[in-house]
Design a protein that fits this description.
This protein folds into three domains: 117 residues, Sufe protein. Chain: A (Alpha-Beta Complex); 53 residues, Orthogonal Bundle (Arc Repressor Mutant, subunit A); 75 residues, GMP Synthetase, Chain A, domain 3 (2-Layer Sandwich), CATH 3.30.300. Helix content is 43%, strand content 18%. Helix 2 packs across helix 5 and helix 6 packs across helix 8. It is built from ten helices and eight strands. The strands form three sheets. A three-stranded antiparallel β-sheet has the order 1-2-3.
Length: 281
């Protein structure tokens, strides 16, 4: 389970400036649903060139939502020149810190802001184009992106690159190439290698069930109940979580989406990445 600060939790549970600006002066879109995170940022300027309104829409985890919300609060009232100086580290610090594995969410916010400002200045729709050779095919991260993120954030290990860009976080086959990029940028003749992290102590079954129940109450049920639905925990068998959808969710046409993209996604984020949710009658 990620260790979130109270400010991250607040911006996740009560995100600021969510929505759409129909006549936005600048719009930036980054990420993709296929990669698990997507963000659209819009802003409106006043007569003095300051950001008078800013809105966002995002698909992602708690850190992605919190980072996007925090960014909108940070840049409101600033000129574009002032907003451009906001770094992804500033976003993380504003939130009191992010888990290392979630720093890519703050990077995504910074990239969306840059795309929105470029859209305003060029008048063209700006989309994230692949720059240079793709290193991580799982998440579509290029050599140029890795280089820029390493230099901007002073990264020195493969793990840090994965945390900030997601590169190497899929199949892992690109980690040696990431190590070579780090070595080249640092001037070293030896490529950086991924360090072995100690295996965390596995949860006992009682601990797992308790954490699942807490996640249901805090993260899952509030979302489902907004539309008249609910979910009941039936049993836990290893990493299999057996549930039954209730209310409007029970006969909904998108029930499988609810199971995979809401229930399972939340349990994987807050309990264990190995959890598989199955519906039983």
């Amino acid at each position: 389970m990620w260790d979130y600060t109270e400010k991250v939790k607040d911006h996740f549970n009560n995100p600021r400036n969510v929505g759409v600006i129909v006549d936005a002066d600048g719009v930036g879109e980054v990420g993709s649903l296929a990669c698990g995170d997507a963000l659209k940022l819009m802003f409106k300027l006043d007569s003095e060139g300051r950001i008078i309104d800013v809105k966002f829409q995002t698909f992602g985890c708690a850190s992605a939502i919190a980072s996007s919300s925090a960014l909108t609060e940070m840049i409101k009232g600033k000129t574009l020149e002032e907003a451009q100086k906001v770094t992804n580290r500033d976003i993380a610090e504003y939130l009191g810190g992010l888990p290392d594995q979630k720093m890519h969410c703050s990077v995504m916010g910074k990239e969306a802001l840059e795309a929105a400002i470029e859209n305003y200045r060029s008048g063209d729709q700006v989309t994230r184009e692949l720059e240079g050779v793709v290193v991580c095919t799982c998440f579509g991260v290029t050599e140029k992106e890795i280089e820029r993120t390493v230099l901007e954030n002073g990264l020195t290990t493969v793990e840090e690159v994965t945390n900030y860009t997601k590169a190497g976080g899929g199949c892992g086959s690109c980690q040696p190439e990431i190590g070579k990029i780090l070595a080249r940028l640092s001037g070293s003749t030896e490529p950086a290698v991924a360090e072995e992290e100690p295996e965390p102590r596995p949860l006992t079954n009682i601990e797992k069930i308790k954490l699942i129940q807490e996640t249901f109450e805090r993260e899952v049920r509030p979302l489902l109940r907004k539309d008249g639905g609910d979910v009941e925990l039936i049993d836990v068998v290893g990493n299999r979580v057996l549930v039954s959808l209730r209310g409007s969710c029970a006969h909904c046409r998108v029930a499988q989406f609810t199971l995979s993209d809401v229930v399972q996604a939340k349990l994987r984020e807050f309990v264990s990445p190995d959890i598989v949710v199955e519906e039983v009658s």
